Amino acid sequence: MGMLNEETRQRALDALEVLDTPPDERVDRITRLAQQIFNVPMVSVNLLDRDRQWRKSEIGIGVQEVPRADAFCEATIQQSGALVIEDATKEDAWASNPFVVGDPHLRFYAGHALAAPCGEHVGTLCLLDTKPRTLDEGERRLLQDLATWVQTELAQQQELDHAAVVQRALNPRELPQPAGFTVTAGSAPAGGVSGDFHDVRLRDGTLRVTLADVMGKGVGAGIIASAVRASLRTAPDRSLPTTVSEIDAILEHDIGDLNMFVTLFSAEIDALTGQVSYVDAGHSLSFIHRADGAWEHLNSTGLPLAMGMGEPHGVGSAQLNPGDALMSCSDGLLDLLDLEDPFGQVDEILEAYGMDGAVDEALRRAVAVKAADDVTVVVVRRKS
């Protein structure tokens, strides 16, 4: 492989951003399957870095990286098909290899190159044994299929990581803090990309707070969440009911036949008086925590978006007095609470961490237990 090709190959490997990352269960699953299918003691998914061979996944080897110069996989990435060495001690090119004459005393090797999205060979899936053996044409095709599966998983993870970075960039970078109020918010996606989002804007003395939850999770839900967020941001002079109505019509037209829907809570808070006007499109997970400890539920004012009912959403109202807090969350938070006494559990968290620290604690717990659904929380507290 020429210098130019090697430089291109290395750039493709670096772009995957997989080197030195933690184990990935999706790749480990393929490694286990390969071992079971081929009945070999050692299987490895390797990435060939500048001067080393680093293992993303392995069974039976126990060493995560070795010098690239002596690796069998160096020869594998030079060709398009599988490299099969039935007995390395009988082939002049490999008989003196340190992995043959020394630990683990390899005899059999079968490897297939892993390609980056643009075709550069960045690694291998290989089968290893300390005994000679053969690989027929059907088994070679199966090895190729498993290698294709591995490279698809590696590329998909890169795409998910990029999508997650873009989505995080769309979240409010700095939450507005109008005089007399404290705003805290955050999200913890169940996977790389979230179907929840939150948005907080301050304009002409009015704080608009929105939390939306797309049915489902993952990339599809994330795409729809981004579309809703973009619609909220356009034409900022629109009234809240008009904004929600127009988003509802757009979603019904675009995804109405996909049987997906979006629950949404959006509120406008007068930063001078604490008066709250809100639209709740089937979300029903917003509350006011009063200064005296009482909880007040903000009722839904209409059905979720994209359900095609065609009825305008009503507008609810409430009042934030000094010491009160408006709290809204996605339904993923319910998985973290004792549903027999959720308010009591939240009160305990508020007592331990304070109103402003409760959001961080909720997100920390979501990450710690690897919550099955996206978790988003927004709190607007009017200072005493």
From TrEMBL:
InterPro entries per UniProt? Bact_Sigma-Reg, GAF, GAF-like_dom_sf, PPM-type-like_dom_sf, PPM-type_phosphatase-like_dom
The PPM-type phosphatase domain extends over: 178-382
Keywords in UniProt for this one?
Hydrolase
Matching SUPFAM superfamilies: GAF domain-like, PP2C-like
For the keyword Nucleus, the answer is: no
GO MF terms listed in the record are: phosphatase activity
Q: Which PANTHER family match?
A: STAGE II SPORULATION PROTEIN E, STAGE II SPORULATION PROTEIN E-RELATED
* Name of the protein described by the UniProt record: PPM-type phosphatase domain-containing protein
Q: Which organism is it from?
A: Nesterenkonia jeotgali
